[in-house]
Amino acid sequence: MTLRMYNTLTRKKEEFVPLEPGKVKMYVCGPTVYNYIHIGNGRPVIFFDVVRRFLESQNYEVTYITNFTDVDDKMIRKAEEMAVTVPELAETFIAAFLEDIQTLGVHDATMNPRVTENIQEIIDFIAALVDKDFAYEARGDVYYRTTKFAEYGKLSHQNLEELQYGIRIEVDDRKENPQDFVLWKAAKPGEIYWDSPWGQGRPGWHIECSAMVRKYLGETIDIHGGGQDLTFPHHECEIAQTEAVTGHPMANYWLHNAFLNIDNEKMSKSLGNGILIRDLVKQIKPEVFRFFMLSAHYRNPLNFSDESLKQAANALERIQNAHDNLKHRLVTASGTGEIEAALTERIAATASQFVEKMNDDFNTPDAITAVFDLVAEANLYLQQERVNAAALHMFLDQLQAFDQTLGILSKQADELLDEEIEQLIVDRTEARKSKNWARADEIRDLLTEKGIFLEDTPQGIRWRRK
Ligand code: AMP
Ligand code: ZN
């Protein structure tokens, strides 16, 4: 089974061949940290987390880098509005972002580099472009000379003439061509700045990713990701910068997620229909939101509505219930007897179906169908009066393996219910009566592990939670 992914660059699903066997270098453009993130921003955050988790489940060692844009025009404006400094603003919203994505069950990135920590690397990158004539200085600004990079437009599949046609007429006599983009911006009085060969200023937006990718991952990486709006101009410009300097492809696979809409409308400031992640998770479980995100293929638009969330909550509940029922039955099931071979095979079939679907350009909705097949098998099995602990373990292990990739099961610790504890105490007393010391010890260990303490009293055994 080979992994295939849709590459925006070639517009084809391609077999994934990493630069180095067993390793994946992955970069996903991160947020500008001037605000709390909204549910739309959650889509790339969750999708690329799942890509990374799936690659790890397939035994790849993944280096996952996602940056913070902690200085730019929007940051400067917002800091002014809030009467704080740009670094103070950044600290606030970086902390908020990390908190929000942790709530969403997103695994920590290998590193979260920031623009302000990489100014020297950015200046060096721009200097190299100027040296090679791919960039020019104009009154303290530095611009990229797009006409010099023959492949400009290759990612978004447009040529320079088309771009010229589509571009807003900007009155900027500093640029040689309207489609040239800024690499370094001269500081206006009172703005945050760094010294550079072109005077005091700050980096333009696109250059940071070229500089950070090269510094933290190298000249060519495996996977570069982001929302589809980043294809042009952001990623197009990253390619132009990096490939002009290194002469090598910036990334072998370019992945872009489609947008999340609200009630079939674009989320926008003017419509005022944005919802923050931190507000949403006060209303619904974060796992439901994750499940909802993964219920559509990442290249298809996804519609957020009360109805679609309700459906997601119901579907996820069926998976969670199966999981909880398996766990609860395990408490009182004993023994490790034989498992029927046909059952083992059916469980294994759901596992290969899951991988097959994920291998097909990360088809999460179809992979979730495989999870439901497992749930259906488990529910059928649980209808039996006598169940085998080994079989229950097998179901649970498989469900947990799926969850390693999807991250949709409740993170709340499993607690024993009161009646389960009481049943276990009865079982233990019986086990001791019949001199089944192994079973009696097994039960005592299980209770200890769950923080339940037993006390022998003249009235019988009492129990309490730690
Ligand atoms: P921004 O804050 O607009 O720079 O966006 C940060 C990330 O979220 C980028 O990868 C965007 O492509 C992505 N993004 C923004 N809005 C949406 C949306 N409604 N649906 C999906 N992705 C989005
Ligand atoms: Zn970027």
UniProtKB/TrEMBL annotation:
Cofactors required:
Zn(2+)
Q: What is its EC number?
A: 6.1.1.16
Protein location: Cytoplasm
Principal cellular location given in the protein's record: cytoplasm
Record-linked Gene3D superfamilies? Cysteine-tRNA ligase, C-terminal anti-codon recognition domain, HUPs
Q: Which SUPFAM superfamilies match?
A: Anticodon-binding domain of a subclass of class I aminoacyl-tRNA synthetases, Nucleotidylyl transferase
Record keyword Metal-binding present: yes
Protein biosynthesis among the record's keywords? Answer: yes
Q: What residues bind ATP, as annotated?
A: K269
Q: Where does the signal sequence lie?
A: none
Residues spanned by motif 'HIGH' region: 31-41
What sort of enzyme, by top EC class, is this? ligase
Tell me the ranges covered by the Cysteinyl-tRNA synthetase class Ia DALR domain, including all copies: 353-417
GO molecular function annotations of the record: ATP binding; cysteine-tRNA ligase activity; zinc ion binding
Q: What keyword terms does UniProt attach to this protein?
A: Aminoacyl-tRNA synthetase, ATP-binding, Cytoplasm, Ligase, Metal-binding, Nucleotide-binding, Protein biosynthesis, Zinc
Question: GO terms for CC?
Answer: cytosol
Which proteins does it associate with, and in what oligomeric form?
Monomer.
Question: What protein family is recorded?
Answer: Belongs to the class-I aminoacyl-tRNA synthetase family.
Protein name in the entry: Cysteine--tRNA ligase
Source organism of the structure: Paenibacillus silvestris
Taxonomic classification, please?
A: Bacteria, Bacillati, Bacillota, Bacilli, Bacillales
Gene name on record?
cysS
